[in-house]
TrEMBL record:
Keywords: Transferase. Residues 287-413 form the Erythromycin biosynthesis protein CIII-like C-terminal domain. One of its GO terms (biological process) is antibiotic biosynthetic process. This is UDP:flavonoid glycosyltransferase YjiC, YdhE family. One of its GO terms (molecular function) is hexosyltransferase activity. CDD domains: GT1_Gtf-like.
Length: 446
């Protein structure tokens, strides 16, 4: 049977979307090894997959990324911060990522192996671009955020701008794409040098394109309605839906769960698993905005102590963690800082959103969600309590947001990501990619 190697940078938001895939493949009898940081060892082992650690620069503490990379705090969110991300968080670990993949492949060099890696893990770039070593039968990228591709029809990733394919819009897009490529030129040169240092000889596309097209194909863990239309979308990109985790029926619900079941309006607020160390960004303003209102507010802290929230109003409940599969069916509005996984989880359940986020990829994920009509984007990482309150009340009052979310819910339901991915793995070794071919051809010859 085909062997599977999975790989992700050590952020929960990059590992968690892959965990259901790993668990499903293990249950199907596949030999699965998962490569990521040591901080996520237990999360990997819980799937039944073997764990192989990243080392050196690649083994950083993703949940505390701003402590691991203090350079990120000295620049403004958006393009400037993303440029630092590309250099420090994504490019510099490439050699150690490449070495980890080669170590795992060398354990069974004669066994046909498919590598499934989320698209921000760049450790496959050297071997895909001609470096010596063991080449997998197929390298498959997995999209875990909105697609960062450059396009004639969209502004570049990192700006949070809506698409515009009109003649004037394409002029805007071309100008901004050129500006962003220039802003990322240092990271681009570093990535190219690292590929060469590992023995790669091929041409590395522009950084954001490379994250999608260097793999033999890209399976985007989302639906078409969540992506801006692109006339130049590479044919190697395929939407497969979201691989949902099974319900966590074994997780005890809080003692106040009956309050959720009996409330007329339930508002959930969360800052996710990365940008959740400063509750004054979103959690506390939301609590302030909705204190005493005719709704029940559920605040989840992503594993951080609930006591850090301080004294709570009578209509607010808090927990470190509640399985979304249990909670979201009872939620009327989700207030979020725009983490892609949480957003998709809510929309797949037909829950509309109020969004406020601008770090990491959040300027773009929040803009995408608002573009669908299922969300209000406050377009800031530190919204005022009054703006949050107004937005929540608008979503509760105006049924168009709920209707848009339910249209997305219906589209998510059309996809069976786990079955599709398993079928692709089944056939991958029967038609292995040829050296120097694959998705890059779409880009280089377009």
């Amino acid at each position: 049977m085909t062997r599977v190697v999975m790989a992700a940078i050590p952020f929960p938001g990059h590992v968690n979307p892959l965990r259901p895939i790993a668990a499903h493949l293990v249950a199907k009898g596949y030999d699965v090894t998962f490569v990521t940081g040591t901080n996520l060892r237990d999360a990997v082992l819980s799937t039944g997959a073997a764990f192989h650690p990243l080392k050196g620069h690649a083994d950083y503490d993703g949940p505390n990324v701003y402590q691991s990379f203090p350079q990120l705090t000295s620049v403004a969110p958006g393009v400037e911060q993303i440029a630092v991300y590309l250099t420090e968080v994504l490019a510099k670990p490439m050699r150690e990522q490449h070495e980890a993949i080669q170590e795992v492949l060398a354990q069974q060099p004669d066994t046909p192996t498919v590598v499934l890696h989320e698209m921000y893990f760049n450790g496959l770039w050297p071997i895909q671009l001609g470096a010596p070593g063991i080449r997998p039968a197929r390298a498959i990228g997995l999209g875990v955020t909105v697609l960062p591709l450059y396009s004639v029809d969209t502004a570049p990733f990192g700006m949070g701008l809506l698409p515009d394919a009109s003649p004037s819009g394409r002029e805007r897009n071309a100008r901004l794409n050129a500006e962003v490529r220039a802003a990322f030129s240092s990271a681009q040169r570093l990535a190219e040098q690292l590929v060469r240092d590992c023995g790669g000889t091929g041409t590395l596309p522009s950084y954001f394109d490379a994250q999608v097209v260097v793999a033999d194909e890209c399976l985007h863990l989302s639906i078409p309605a969540m992506e801006y239309p692109r006339s130049d979308l590479p044919s190697s990109v395929r939407f497969v839906g979201v691989p949902w985790e099974e319900d966590h029926q074994d997780v005890p619900l809080p003692h106040w769960w009956d309050d959720v079941l009996n409330a007329e309006n339930v508002v959930l607020v969360s800052q996710g698993t990365v940008s959740n160390d400063d509750y004054s960004e979103l959690m506390l303003p939301t609590i302030e905005a909705l204190a005493g209102q005719d709704c029940l507010v559920i605040a989840t802290t992503g594993g951080r102590p609930v006591s850090d929230l301080g004294d709570l109003p009578d209509n607010v409940r808090a927990a470190e963690y509640i399985p979304y599969t249990q909670l979201l069916p009872h939620v009327d509005v989700f207030v979020s800082n725009g983490g892609f996984g949480g957003m998709q989880m809510a929309l797949s359940r037909g829950v509309p959103l109020v969004l406020a986020g601008e770090t990491e990829e959040k300027k773009d994920s929040t803009a995408h969600a608002a573009w669908t009509g299922a969300a209000i984007n406050l377009a800031t990482g530190r919204p005022r309590a009054s703006d949050i309150g107004d937005a929540v009340r608008e979503v509760l009052r105006d049924d168009t947001y709920r209707a848009a979310a339910r249209r997305l819910q219906a589209e998510y339901a059309e996809y069976d990501a786990l079955r599709t991915i398993t079928d692709i793995v089944e056939t991958a070794c029967k038609t292995p990619a040829s050296q120097g071919t694959g998705a890059i051809g779409d880009l280089l010859h377009s």
